[in-house]
Amino acid sequence: MSNGVLKLKLHRVTDSLSIIPCFIKGDPKQLGPVVKSGLAAEFGLERSPMERLMEFPMYESKKKVGYNPMIITKLLDNYRSHKDLLTIPNEIFYKGELRCCADLAKVSDCEKLTWLPNSNFPILFDNIR
Question: What's the pLDDT at 83?
Answer without folding.
Answer: 86
